Design the sequence.
């Protein structure tokens, strides 16, 4: 396994610009090589700042946005359009400004979705969408992604998972997390471990961890 590389920037703005530039390169290369690419978005101050920088750079036009599949790694279980949703922030910062294929944008259902006020059922539905998108060569319940964005919060939480939560040990790919934030999210510890223990070394190379504390991201490979 390759050794992670930690890259530290002096402030949040430089971090956001640097990550946005790497995302352009990765997505352009992936679409050129395979005709498609996939990205998993996150929220938070730095995560949304990266998307805003991506929208602002002229290089964004080099990306064939209609050939991107866009997923979310965590989401608050609130209605569509709620300012607390990561989807809302992503649309305002980036997705409303680029020509995506609506059929390839996959937000997590909220309480106004087909499962109503049942986050467990909504999480299971999202898991079924992921499984349907996975190919035989992905060797798992979720697709192999080109970019997975993860944020680290001030309490060391990642993807709505706080230290000590039982959901950290859940074996399902999508799990409803009940906390003060009333969130559910996916791609938590179990799925990341699945990638690390199979053939996803290339996936690890494309993992970006954003921290508003250390202002760094890492890659492997």
Sequence:
């Amino acid at each position: 396994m390759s050794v992670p590389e930690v890259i530290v920037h002096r402030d949040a703005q430089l971090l956001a610009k640097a990550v946005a530039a790497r995302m352009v390169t990765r997505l352009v290369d992936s679409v050129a090589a395979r005709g498609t690419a996939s990205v998993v978005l996150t929220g938070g101050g730095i995560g949304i700042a990266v998307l805003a920088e991506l929208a602002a750079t002229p290089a964004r036009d080099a990306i064939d946005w209609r050939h991107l599949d866009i997923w979310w790694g965590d989401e608050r279980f609130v209605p569509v359009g709620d300012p607390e949703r990561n989807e809302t922030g992503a649309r305002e910062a980036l997705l409303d400004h680029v020509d995506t294929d609506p059929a390839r944008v996959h937000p997590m259902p909220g309480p106004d979705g087909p499962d109503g006020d049942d986050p467990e059922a909504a999480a299971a539905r999202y898991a079924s969408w992921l499984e349907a998108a996975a190919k035989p060569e992905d060797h798992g319940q979720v697709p192999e992604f080109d970019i997975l964005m993860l944020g680290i919060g001030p309490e060391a939480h990642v993807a709505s998972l706080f230290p000590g939560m039982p959901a950290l040990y859940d074996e399902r790919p999508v799990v409803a997390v009940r906390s003060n934030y009333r969130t559910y999210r996916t791609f938590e510890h179990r799925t990341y471990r699945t990638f690390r223990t199979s053939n996803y070394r290339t996936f690890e190379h494309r993992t970006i961890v954003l921290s508003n504390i250390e202002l760094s991201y890492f890659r492997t490979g």
